[in-house]
Amino acid sequence: MRVKRPSERKTLLSVICCTEGERIQKEIGVIRGDTVHMHEKTSPSGSVEKIEKLMKKKRSGLFLSVTKERHLVIGRAFNDELIDMVEFKINRYLSVSDFECAGPELHMKYFVVLQNINNSRLENLVVDFFNMKSSKVCLESVRYSWVFARTEEGYVLKYVRVLKDLSVEDCGPLLEMELVRSYHCSDELYKKSLGEPSKPRKNTAKNLFSDRIGTLHIDKQDLRDIRLKKSRGYNGVSSWS
Fold first, then answer.
1. Structural domain boundaries enclosing 159
2. What is the pLDDT of residues 92-103, one digit of tens each?
3. What CA–CA distance (Å, rounded) separates 183 from 155?
4. Spatial distance between the Cα atoms of 111 and 225, rounded to a whole number of angstroms
5. Beta 144-150 vs 110-115: how paired, if at all?
6. What are phi and psi of 56, to 5 degrees?
7. Are 63 and 74 in contact (CB under 8 A)?
């Protein structure tokens, strides 16, 4: 069986507009990888057109920004059009240096764990944001995990280390947040971005060679309506009889 190769991982655009947000964005970006940082005087979260323009310029499918009001904004685009954007207010932030344990290793594979989110669009966005696009993974070698959980106070995003006894320890960063606002595109555009057909194709299937085959249904032909050209021999027989 041929292993399906994952699609290319999306580049994350980190738009830095304040000093405090720069530290948060760089910590997330250095752990995630495939991140491009750029400085802007104001946060682009207030203008959809500005976000789309910057993402198109940097050829990135995801973006991240922290505003001066300590709001974490993440989003993604499809065909240069914004399809998801979520804004959180950061109530508490702990950097990697705030933990007594050793800091996380870089360029390591990690899990993405979601807990009690109960929002399929938000879950899909977070998975797409941190997805590593790996086709083969040795579970025993994965020692880290991003955890995104919903609590009574709001949401928690943290990076943890998986120990040998399968327990975990926080190694930072850690963010406690509450949802401020969110935007999601229409279901039709969302399905299109996932590569799903808008309408199911009936009477079609694929064979062993992945060729699409189908069945055509046509009306039964009435042979009595067909006019045949009479031959001379036929005319002669008719007149003789």
1. 12-193
2. 999 999 999 999
3. 17
4. 69
5. parallel
6. -70, -40
7. yes
Listed in sequence order, the residues at least 6 apart from 13 whose beta carbon sits closer than 8 Å to its beta carbon are: 35, 36, 38, 54, 55, 58, 60, 62, 63, 64
Q: What share of the chain is helix, strand, coil (3-state, %, to 5)?
A: 25, 35, 40
- Give 213-240 pLDDT, tens digit per residue: 887 777 777 767 666 666 565 555 444 4
Q: What is the CATH number of the domain that holds 113?
A: 3.40.50.10480
pTM of the model: 0.78
SS3 category, 82: strand
C-alpha torsion sign, points 169, 173, 178, 181: negative
First to last CA, the chain: 71
Token pair, residue 183, equals 């935007």
**Residue 6 forms part of a structural domain:** no
Q: In whole angstroms, what separates CA 61 from the centre of its chain?
A: 9
Euclidean distance between CA atoms 189 and 84, whole angstroms: 11
- Beta strand ranges found along 79-227 (DSSP E): 81-94, 110-115, 144-150, 155-162, 168-184, 204-206, 212-214
